[in-house]
């Protein structure tokens, strides 16, 4: 998703994308790339970026609320529908320094995308391509060159995350199911 927008990734993370204006007071609907739009309420300021990389100054968050899988956001200086409509398609950024500290066994999604994935014995499984929420839990999407392997993110399956790799202990037989799927990325029926 970050390839869609140009911004200094060492300083900012892409939280989501403005979908469309909502109402008449400057609110907009936003899809959250973290799968957890409720987390937006913890942030005091957000930055908007267009596809050319033009970034807004930090804008104070007036309000956020959930609407299904989306968030409805109201930022300072976006006071009417016309201004909110102008934002459609823009990325929503957060300064990395604004991220709350995590517990030892937690990680942010953006920190693991692109990392190598190994099993408990150190054998290379693939690379993290994406993470998404299916509504009940988060899912790690691993690409092994031929297959897309979906692994539930639980304390039991994600054993370790370091600067270099993620170590997984998938449910028995899960990797074999995907690898025997004729390359379509889905377990056989």
From TrEMBL:
GO biological process, any: rRNA processing
Entry's Gene Ontology molecular function annotations: ribosome binding
GO cellular component: cytoplasm; ribosome
Domain RimM N-terminal residue range list: 15-97
UniProt keyword annotations, A-Z: Chaperone, Cytoplasm, Ribosome biogenesis, rRNA processing
Domain spans labelled Ribosome maturation factor RimM PRC barrel: 109-174
Family designation: Belongs to the RimM family.
Domain text: The PRC barrel domain binds ribosomal protein uS19.
Function (record text): An accessory protein needed during the final step in the assembly of 30S ribosomal subunit, possibly for assembly of the head region. Essential for efficient processing of 16S rRNA. May be needed both before and after RbfA during the maturation of 16S rRNA. It has affinity for free ribosomal 30S subunits but not for 70S ribosomes.
Assembly and oligomerization: Binds ribosomal protein uS19.
HAMAP family: Ribosome_mat_RimM
PANTHER family found in the cross-reference section: RIBOSOME MATURATION FACTOR RIMM
Protein name, per record: Ribosome maturation factor RimM
Organism: Desulfomarina profundi
């Amino acid at each position: 998703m970050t390839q869609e927008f140009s911004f200094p990734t060492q300083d900012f993370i892409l939280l989501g994308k403005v979908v469309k204006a909502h109402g008449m007071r400057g609110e907009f609907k936003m899809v959250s790339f973290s799968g957890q739009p409720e987390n937006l309420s913890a942030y005091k300021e957000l930055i908007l970026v267009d596809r050319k990389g033009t970034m807004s100054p930090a804008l104070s968050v007036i309000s956020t609320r959930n609407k299904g899988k989306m968030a409805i956001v109201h930022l300072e200086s976006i006071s009417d529908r016309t201004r909110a409509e102008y934002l459609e398609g823009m990325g929503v950024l957060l300064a990395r320094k604004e991220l709350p500290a995590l517990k030892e066994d937690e990680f942010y999604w953006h920190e693991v995308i692109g990392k190598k994935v190994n099993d408990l014995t150190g054998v290379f499984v693939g690379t993290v391509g994406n993470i998404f929420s299916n509504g009940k839990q988060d899912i790690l999407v691993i690409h092994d060159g031929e297959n897309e392997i979906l692994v539930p993110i639980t304390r039991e399956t994600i054993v370790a995350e370091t600067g270099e790799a993620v170590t997984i202990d998938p449910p028995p037989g899960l990797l074999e199911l995907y690898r025997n799927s004729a390359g379509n990325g889905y377990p056989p029926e």
